[in-house]
Amino acid sequence: MSNEHMQFCETISHLTQEEKEWFFNLPSIRHIEWDNYDDDIEITDILEGYGISLSCYDGLESLEDLDNFPNFQIDVYQDNVVLRGDEGFNLDHVAAVVQSFIKKFRPYYVFTLTWGIVSSRPGTSGGGYMVVSYDDVENGNVWRAARLTESKLGSRINLAVPPFKLR
Asked: 91-105 vs 17-24: helix axis angle to the nearest 10?
């Protein structure tokens, strides 16, 4: 049996007081006072009321996908916020929060996150990246990047070595 977990830790620095308050007051679905809302209100409406846009959330197939939103840790300090995922996290939740922050406060900001997957089984460790801007969220994994680099370096080697001749 393998032991596997994902982790990330990234910072957004130089927060204004308004930005700090926005992060500090982000709703957690677990802590929403449901009695304050009509029975027919959608979770997405509540989040949008807090300024959380789910337009980049490709994985939203049902409201159950928002269980435990946000499924990562947010720590607000003096002038920065640390976003952290230990033992797993929901990348779509991170993208929704970060892109909402960018749209509200820093339209020209680009946020980059990298994560690692650590496994006790050989060949299964790895990781990836996500880049978030005002309009886009792009991500990829280290295995694809490694294969592309391997292919590029391999083609250089093949050009540098004369072909093998059979006798």
From this structure: 150
Contacts of 41 (CB under 8 A, 6+ apart): none
Torsion from C-alpha of 99, 20, 73, 90, nearest 10 degrees: -10
Residues 6 or more apart whose Cβ sits within 8 Å of residue 114 = 8, 10, 127, 128, 129, 130
d(CA 25, CA 44): 17
User: Tokens for 126?
Assistant: 């790895």
What is the average per-residue pLDDT within 85-107? 88
More confident: 59 or 68: 68
Note whether 57 and 132 are within 8 A (CB).
no
Report residue 76 CA to chain centroid gap.
18
Query: Letter for the amino acid at 132?
Result: V
Token readout for 95 is 């993208």
> Hey, what are 165's tokens?
């001749």
Torsion of CA 7, 27, 20, 117, to 10 degrees: 10
Core vs surface per residue 126-157: b (16+ CB within 10 A) or e: bbbebebbeeebeeeebeeeeeeeeeeeeeee
Range 18-37 average pLDDT:
73
Q: Read off the tokens for 54.
A: 């789910």
